[in-house]
Structures are given as C-alpha cells and as structure tokens.
Amino acid sequence: MVWGNGCQDGVYTRPLFLVFYATVAAGIVFSSLYVFSAVYSSSNFVSGFSSSWFSSTSGEFNNSNSTLIKDQTPNVSQPDVHNKGERPIWEAPDTKNMPSPSTFRLSKELVQRHVKDNVIVVTFGNYAFLDFILNWVKHLTDLDLSNLLVGAMDTKLLEALYWKGIPVFDMGSHMSTVDVGWGSSTFHKMGREKVILIDSILPYGFELLMCDTDMVWLKNPLPYLARYPEADVLSSSDQVIPTVVDDKLDIWNEVTGALNIGIFHWRPTRASKKLAKEWKEMLLADDKIWDQNGFNELVRKKYGPSVDEDSGLVYAYDGNLKLGILPASIFCSGHTFFVQAMYQQFRLEPYAVHTTFQYAGTKGKRHRLREAMAFDDPPEYFDAPGGYLSFKPSIPKSLLLDGEHDLDTHFRLMNYQLKQIRTALAIASLLNRVLIMPPLWCRLDKLWYGHPGVLQGSVTRQPFICPLDHVFEINVMLKELSMEEFGPGINFREYSFLDNPLLPKQVKESWLDVQLCKQESEGCHASNDTVLPGVLKFPKDSNEDTFKAIFSKFKDVKVIQFSTMQDAFPGFSDKKREEKFRNRVKRYVGIWCCVENAAPGHVFYDMYWDEKPDWKPHPPRTPEEDRPPL
C-alpha cells in the first residue's frame, strides 16, 4: 500500500533465512576498508550507502536533484510532447478558470493523450502527499519521461496539480486531504481505490506501471521492463536476501518476501485482466483484507513451474499468468537501499527506491529520501533563517570495529554518538540555528521482531550508516511541543544536507570552522577574532553567555561547523531552561528492536545514559521498566 508504517511495511515478509551467500564473507573484508574510508578520509559524507556511487554514477540520478520551485515551473528541460495539443509537463495552464469536472474523468481518451509506446505510468494520492507526488513527477520528468498520470483523491490535490501543469485525473474518491495513517479505514479504502484503478485502466489496452507515491524513480525503468515482453505482471517485492547478484529477475522459488504492490507493471493481457478483476472483487467483498495480502494470496494460488529456462518468469495465479519478480537490489525496498546498499555492493545502478522498512511514518519516509538527496525541497529549505550548525563526529575505531557486533558494542557506539548529538542540540537551541545531524553509525540493524543483529543471508555490512529513524523519533522531533514545558523547538536537517546539489552558493560560501581548545592552552581564549580566515578558536566548556557574546558577531554566517562536540558546552545555567531542554530531547530517541527469544525484546535509547552509572542495554524486565526513560 502507499503509506506503510515502519513496523508494518514488512511485517508479512519475514524471511526464512535459508540462503547465505559467499558475498557476505567477502563483505567482511571490504567492511573495514569501507568504514575507515568513510570515517577518516573525509568530513564530507555524501551518502550513508555509497559516497563513491553518488559522485561517479551517470547523470540520471544527479539530475533528479534539480530544484523544484513551488508555484513556479521547475528549471528543467521539458520532456518531448508525444501527443499534439498537450502542454509540456510543468507548464502552467494559460487560463484563469478551472475546466469543467468532466475534463478530469478517467477515460480511455484521457489516458491515450499521455501514453507513449503504449505505456502509462500512474500514481495516486490525496493532498496530504502533494510534496511526494511533485517529487515523483519531478524525478520522472528529469528522466525525460512524460507518459505519466496522477490520480487525485480529493479536489484540493486535483486543482493544485492542474495549476502546476501536471497531468491529473479525478478518482472520484472525495477523500480527506490529511494523512490517513497506516491501517486506518481510510488507508484500506486507498488500497481498494488502487485495485479499482488497475481494473479500470487495463481494458483500455495500455501497459500500466503502477506506483505508490512514496517511491522515487532514479533511472528510466521502461527499457528494463521491455526486456520481458512475455510477462503479464512484473512486481517488486520485500525480499531482503539476494537471489541474484546481477540485474536479472529475482529467482522466484528463492524469494521468501511478499510481493510488494508499491511498484508493479501490468500488461493488458487476458490473464492480467482476470487477476485484476478477481482481486477487486475479493477486496470489495471483505473490507478486512489488506490489498497487498490479497494480491499475494491470489498470485500464489498456483505458483510454478518456470515459464522457461532463461527468462526468470513463473506461471502463477491460475496457471496461465506469467509473473516476474523485479530484483530487490535495483528495484529497492527501504531495507535493500538504505540499510544493505545492495545495489552498491553488487556494483549496479538502482532504478527505484520505495521507502518501506522504516519507523517514522510519512515524516520518516520524507527524511529517508532527503538523506539520499532524492527529495526536491523548495529553496527556503536550503537557506533557513539563522543559519546552520554542524559538527564533525569523532568516533574511535575501537567503538566501530573492535569486539563482536552485539548489543553491548552497539549501544557503546550509539551512546557515544548520542552524547555528542545532545550537546549539538543544546548549542543549536542556544544559537537559534538549524542542526545538521551527523551520519549515525550502527553495529546492529533494527527490525520489528527478534533477530541476531542483522538479517541472516542479507549483505548488511557492520557497522553501517543507519537511517535516522533507526534511533530517533522523527515524528516527535518535528512535532510542535509546548514552549512552556519543552522550551524552543530545534530544527534539524539530514546528514547529507551540505552535499546536496540544491544547496545555494550563498550558503556554501558562508562558513566558519570552530576549533575547540583547552582553556589553559596557549592562544585559547574567548574572542571573536579568527586565527585564519573562516577559522575560530573557542574554549571548551564555555558557558552560554560566552557562546552568545562570541557568536553574535557571526550571526550572518550561514554554516558554523565545530571540530567536535566533546566538552563543547556543559549545559544551560538557567535551571528552568535546562529542565525544558531535557524534557524535549529525552523524547527524541526511540528503541532498538529486538533481542531474540525475549518478550518484550526492545531496548530503549536514553539521551542521558551517562548520568546513570549502572545503565546497561537490556530489555525491560518489569512492566514498570517498559517505558521511555523520561
């Protein structure tokens, strides 16, 4: 479905752990080189999954980062218009009035106007996900794909897309314009709307590439899909264990994860039309069936044998439908992309990423795409009032690599980083700056059930740069909390922010490096005189008055970067402000999950772990312990 919650996106896909690849053994050797090069060779973390890939891959991915200016036409080349009379996408209408509602009704004629090579690419949603939909369209048009349509589930979205020049049709859903939340009755209604849509379009005779709006196209998928002309349906999956190491279809009888209906391609064949019709009838007859579960149940009614020796297709559903499973390494889930970086390890170029396997709902999905520099934010996101604060995380090698990768070593590494981030949050609050979060290094994966640290058979490297939602409660960090109880809010950005091509020149060139020094050392005193252009020495453990006095001179500097956060700031002298700050940041961290054979098996992160001498990472032992450490 379109919007899965982190624990539910993959809950039906628990792997059987039957396959263990030699790739993992080779990865152990590579892991040390990877860690050292990422931590010690540069302060510029381009991406947690592949700094080298982002800088060297073809322009398809990098071009997708062009700025999307809200309420204006984006500064991108216009795709070819393949039907005479159709405006190029992003070209605003030359009228002041909305056309009649009948103009937007789904019909064969409407779809025909946007089809190219008999293929139409479709997504749908409501106004709550306007920025995701614009991002989805932007990535497609940056790939010179214009044969797309967006289904609007409410009038507000329909009008917004029309005035931006995006091909849109009315789904007649009359849906709420807010985020519906995973598992709600409205969420399930959205799933049924998708199935009804597929069943409606297939009889028109066009190939349909159906997508959820929480996915992004990184490379034109149409040539790949055309490699399998015999396939009735090509579907993505929640597979987390590789079955192939090249760009062939996943091996169907080795795939243990569920088929994921966030990305799938339908050809208008007799078998596919029959499947779509039965799937629709199944869901309309029972409103308790989740659309993805229903699809998997139908497809697996008959499963096998292979269609032939070479294609990778399998007979499924009624024994006549030819199904192919898109390789999870390049049609990526949130796990194979953000955690395993499977495409990078196999030296492949990803076609798509779908933000599943994450833990912070819609806000977490948006942040994941920002970390990947695959979300087109408006210019103001990259030039915030008050400027930015960043720091270089200094992590000892021993915390990253020494000892077994287990609960103790994972939390020693995480706690070391949390203490620095806590200090950075305080300084950002004090100076009223936006904190650029550092990359988070994890030794253990996070899932929603007990596991041995990483998924057995996966190619997850240890340690790895983990998504922010593995540790932090992004929903809470973005929530407007009471000033009286929690003090001022603290805005933040993703760790890849300073490497984003959308960062404007005036931000890149306005920079101050702050080198912390011991107060008793020579030349270390509180002064706003820079020792070199753009470099300031600043005493450790300075109080808030000193911070304000010194940094007030640099209020117009866009980026202030500290050499470290170790002993940078002892805390607020005002007890009330310190208490409010603590109340806020204690709520910022979540849980690690989960210890095997334990109920409950989760372990709470604690922002103030260092103030508890006996603190150890273990699951709650009593109901009283099973609560966040507030």
UniProtKB/TrEMBL annotation:
Bias-annotated ranges (Polar residues): 66-80
Domain Nucleotide-diphospho-sugar transferase, residue spans: 145-369
Entry's Gene Ontology molecular function annotations: arabinosyltransferase activity
GO biological processes: cell wall pectin biosynthetic process
Region (Disordered): 66-94
Xref: InterPro entries: Glycosyltransferase_77, Nucl-diP-sugar_transferase
Species assigned in the record: Cucurbita maxima (Pumpkin)
Chain ranges passing through the membrane: 18-40
Protein's name according to its UniProt entry: Arabinosyltransferase XEG113-like
Entry superkingdom: Eukaryota
Gene Ontology CC terms, in alphabetical order: Golgi apparatus
